[in-house]
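Blinded run. Sample ID left blank on purpose so nobody reads anything into the name before looking at the predicted structure. Input follows.
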Amino acid sequence: MSGVRVRFAPSPTGSLHLGNARTALFNWLFARRELGVFVLRVEDTDIEREVAGAEPALREDLRWLGIAWDEGPDTGGPHGPYRQSERSGVYRTAAERLRTGKHAYPCFCTTEQLEADRAAQQARGETPRYPGRCAGLSRAEGDRRLAAGEAAALRLRITGWPAFTDLVRGRLEFGARTLSDPVLVRRDGRPTYNFAVVVDDLAMKITHVLRGDDHISNTPVQVAILEALGESPPQYAHLPTVLGPDGTPLSKRHGAVSLAEMRRRGYPPEAVAAALWRLGWTPPEDLPPDLAAAAAVFDLAHVSPSPAAFDAQRLDHLGEVVLAGLPPLQRAVRALPFLGPLLGEAAAAAWAPAALDWLGRLLDLWSRQARTFTDYADLARWVFRFDESLESATPAVRDELSGADALRVNRAAAAAAAERGPVRSIEDWKSLCTAVGGAAGVKGRALFHPLRLALTAAENGPELQRLAPLLDEGAGFREPAAIRGVRERLELASRAAPGAATP
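Blinded prediction complete.
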């Protein structure tokens, strides 16, 4: 281990947004590149906004993306606990340390007083700030009022905002900001975000903080708290804002913006991860959609401070690349959960290895069309539900199948298939087509178009010479997916509709 320690600290207030997922991914890539430690910490002190079940869901989302943590609430570690709600004693100790050192003081101002101050300042055209009403109280007076049970917040005594160096943006200074002593602990005893984050980062020995640039304004406060505690701050890297295609911050109005939605849509996680790491980082052009490969070359020096737009078309392309590169067995196993409407809800365990291998090779027919696993369900529907597809075919397809030319070809093909037996190879298919062409007196499109309509109930589809052997092979796997073979399809399609011409 290198000594590098980073953390991803989400709040369990909903689904994991793509912007937050990008932050988690950059932290993980950096930790793995530096042979460091990746910590998962749950910031669950915002009780009002917490969503039941959100914490296990976000852990599941991260694992799906390929991100594993070295320390966390479910794995433990030497610097736990890893939920803020379980660290109240740590915050009390740090708060008392600041107060004893005269870096912080109790503030007895009520909410009504503070709101009145704010309104008066705004009426005068001033930037609202704490007027320092309690800053001059003596230690004895503060102790007396606290001992009497008077509620108080704890404020940090500020004389100036410290500058810091950002690993993405360089040196940042905030000297011109209006000074206002920030609250560290609320009147009800709960730590504020800035205070809890600093105490946790310090206790967990975090060396680098990689987070969204919406936290830049928090950083001077956090550095000031660390300086008051006599500690050195970690190194900060603020990542660029993630935008939608319209140039505004990515949100629900842009469509799927959570990992949970990406999972439901069937995107392969490798594609999602590759799309996310391109949001601000410029990777090598030949970098494949592979987390280990990305971690090996990840470099904060190549992270841009400029906002990055999420590109749905790029995600689709990456999905196509990932799916096309899967071995047949892996493709089948991963696609099965999304093929339930076609195959029933049979799990991968219900399939024999040979059937799974066949399914993977079948799905490879659409290796340049499928972007998601759910695409396979749409593209392959007619393979598993041929009777329904034939019945619901477009009027044009049904008219052509009922025409004299198509009937002559498909009846000849059905007879030849019955005589020759199942199509087992491309050579078998070519031989069958030669025999049908001779019997029906046709060739070229006049031969192959009726055969395509008969086998697929559609105008377009995969190469027939690749499809036909798979149809007959698949017809042998009656459970859990029963499909019709070549001869059965030809016979069904060659039954003329009422009123059709007779060859």
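Unblinding after everyone has recorded impressions. Residues 497-503 have pLDDT under 50 and may be disordered.
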